[in-house]
Amino acid sequence: MRREIPLLITFLVGIIFLFGPITTGNIPVLEMSFRQIVSTYLSPWTTIITAFAIGLASINLLRLHGSYVARKRSGWINSAALVISMLFFTVARIIRELRPTDPEVVAFYGRIFDNIAAPLSGAMFAILAFYIASASYRAFRARSLEASVLLVAAIIVMLGAAPVGALIWDYFPSLQRWLLAVPNTAGQRAIIIGAAIGGFATSLRILFGLERGYLGGD
Amino acid sequence: MELVPGNIFGVWAMVVVSICVLLVVYLTKEGKFLVKLRRIAGLEAIEEAIGRATEMGKPVHFSPGIADVTGDTAPQTFAALEVLTYVTTLSAKYNAELIVTIRMPNVFPLAQEVVRQGYLAAGKPDLFQEETVRFLSSEQFAYIAGVLGIFTRQRVAANLMIGAFWAESLLMAEGGSQVGAIQVAGTANMHQIPFFVAACDYTLIGEEIYAGGAYLSQDKVRLGSIASQDYVKFALMASILVGAVMMTAGNDWLRVLFVK
Amino acid sequence: MNWANKLQSIDRRIIYTILLIGLTIPLIWPIGIPLAVNDTTRAVYKIIEDLDPATDVVLLSFDYSPASAPDVHPSAVAIVEHLTKRGIKWVGVSFWPEGPQMSEKIMRDLEARGLKYGVDFIDLGFMAGMENAIAEFAQNSRVITTDVRGTHIDNLPLMNNIKTMKDFGFVIGISAGDPGYNAFIRQAVDPMGVKFAAAIVTVSVPAAMPFYASGQLRGMLQGLRGAAEYESLTGVAGRGAAMMDAQSIGHLIIVAFIAVGNFAYFLSKKK
């Protein structure tokens, strides 16, 4: 029963979610539509389960880093910073939720969002530009015919996408557009179709209980 | 109760495809249908990567992507967990230190269970430590910052990234490259594939990640499911060809049918 | 190690430093490289130009976070500027938790310029549930009962004639990931025929092209460049155009490094 009950729940919930967006009208006997079951029961449950999962995961994080601090493991100062900032943000958000109309609380939360969370996330996203530069420098070598095609396509797309491309050669933008609209679209469509079928078959195995790996074994 | 217009063909296609998939799975399970998968270099390289990490005495990092267990990217997370089962078994076999980093809280207990059971099945339950599976943050860029920190501090020798990735894909792959890790990546998020191709040693493209569990476990149910995908694909290819010919000839019957 | 080998393995830190300098200079001293407008951008502009300010209400879905904001927020601003210029009213919604913080910035700016919340625009805030929420909102756009400022939607005139997503004159998803433009295509465009366009992060452009080619996306703003193109169409200067010179220099530097790497590779092969 340890396996059967979760599999049965998976099947029933999966079917309800599947039919929610694509059917209208009440299910006979139940006098409720799939959509209503989703919005009335399942969506709140999803939120509750996610909240508990966040709680569980946060406790793991706090225990792990708490023990690093307690044992003064190398780099424990980073763990201390993590624990303090995590508790600070949690308290700040709880106060924001408890007093949603207090202008001072709203402004304070806005300030920490704009001045701490936003720049930190933005900085990580910005690092992408530098990593793209080093990865392309390393990867784009004309070692073979295929690699040479990749190299030429990459250069055309890079120059065609930036305004400076048209100044270097008039045809860069139109070549870039052609590469994106024709060979890229053809390849993307093939991958989309293949990946969608793969995703569908995986979902079907999970729905029918044929895939149990995620429950911790076959 | 009735179907929302625009979904009628989709629902019937889903029923037909489901029957086809389940039939091929059943026939394969019963041994009436033999499935052999082609060699997938990326999956073969996982053992090499873990073996190398063991020799170097450094950890193996595994990320199941940053998607949740709901939504259209959920199958990628489940495919990643299938591969994680195999990675855990190999780590137990070689006594390699495994670090699994998690972004989505819902994936955390599942990954913990997969790794715990994997070590148990391999007869080495002691290898499972509290820090084997680590939740880092549900915020995308805080998660990747945490992963990069682990790379730098622990100098991982193998970095395995299978699942749904977005902007953090290149950050993780390039971070792994900076510490000299052998890297195997796979995703069905098309826009991230080029980054993995550029920065990793091996890349699983699109549906190859769904074949991972079947390929590595040789489980008949999974093998049948992979084979059935090819039949569905053949049917779709045929309908694309017929549709293109019909549209060229000025007949849009098939197009209208598909959007019904 | 000879110099050909050295040029094949230039230290990352050198690449990063040169790129940083190359990106910073045009931000301080803009060059003003002329910009051609893509069809995908022009298509969005044309649809908004053809809307009727008296009857059409536009839905803007703010599905991005501060991290991706530098790439897509200028597009959101450029579109809102166009809507404002034409007197078209809009409704905001978010399927990302950080979305309302992003729309709030735009609304604050509009209010400072004398436009009125509740009259010219409203924001319904964040709806949890990822793609399921988009499906739910598409079928029943009154499922969110209060806006971000706590007003019931029955008291918001902008929502008077809105029952489903089909009732919006045009829907634009400003999208940086999941759920994003493809969820709208699956849940609103294909089943309901909603008129939909997207402003997306640059990295998603190749993956989104098939949907533009098929007509499921009526138009598309391609990252920061899309914003700059849109600004040039509306004539309202914004952050997009200012950043394009930096992008040009950045691309040139990357291409230069690739060229150096290949040149050195061929030299070492010859030897």
Key terms for this structure?
heterotrimer; A: 2 domains; 7 helices; 79% helix; extended; C: 271 residues; alpha/beta; Rossmann fold; 2 domains
Over the alpha carbons, how many angstroms does the gyration radius of chain B reach? 21 Å
Instruction: Label the structural class of chain A.
Output: mainly alpha
The biggest sheet of chain A, with number of strands, parallel, antiparallel or mixed sense and barrel status, is: none
Classified by CATH, the class of the largest domain in chain B is Alpha Beta
Describe the structure.
The complex is a heterotrimer of chains A (218), B (260) and C (271). Chain A has 218 residues and is an all-alpha fold. Chain A has helices spanning 4-19, 34-70, 76-98, 103-139, 145-161, 164-168, 171-207, and one strand at 23-24. Chain A has seven helices and one strand. In chain A, helix 1 (4-19) crosses helix 2 (34-70) and helix 2 packs antiparallel against helix 3. Chain B has a six-stranded parallel beta sheet, with helices on both faces. Chain B has helices at residues 8-29, 41-56, 74-94, 107-121, 140-154, 168-178, 193-199, 208-217, 220-248, 253-258; strands at 2-3, 60-65, 98-102, 133-135, 158-164, 182-187, 202-205. In chain B, helix 4 (107-121) links the parallel strand 3 (98-102) and strand 4. Chain B is an alpha/beta fold and 260 residues long. The longest helix of chain B has 29 residues, at 220-248. In chain C, helix 4 (69-86) packs parallel to helix 9 (223-234) and helix 9 crosses helix 10 (239-270). The mean pLDDT of chain C is 92. Chain C has a six-stranded parallel beta sheet with strand order 3-2-1-4-5-6, sandwiched between helices. The two termini of chain C are 13 Å apart. Chain C is of the alpha/beta class and 271 residues long. Chain C has helices spanning 3-8, 12-28, 39-50, 69-86, 99-112, 130-139, 181-192, 205-213, 223-234, 239-270; strands spanning 57-63, 89-94, 121-126, 170-175, 196-200, 220-222. Helices cover 52% and strands 12% of the residues of chain C. Chain C is elongated, with a radius of gyration of 21 Å. Classes of the chains: A mainly alpha (218), B alpha/beta (260), C alpha/beta (271). At the A-B interface, strand 1, helix 2, helix 4 and helix 7 of A face strand 1, helix 1, helix 3, helix 4 and helix 5 of B. Strand 1 (23-24) of chain A pairs antiparallel with strand 1 (2-3) of chain B.
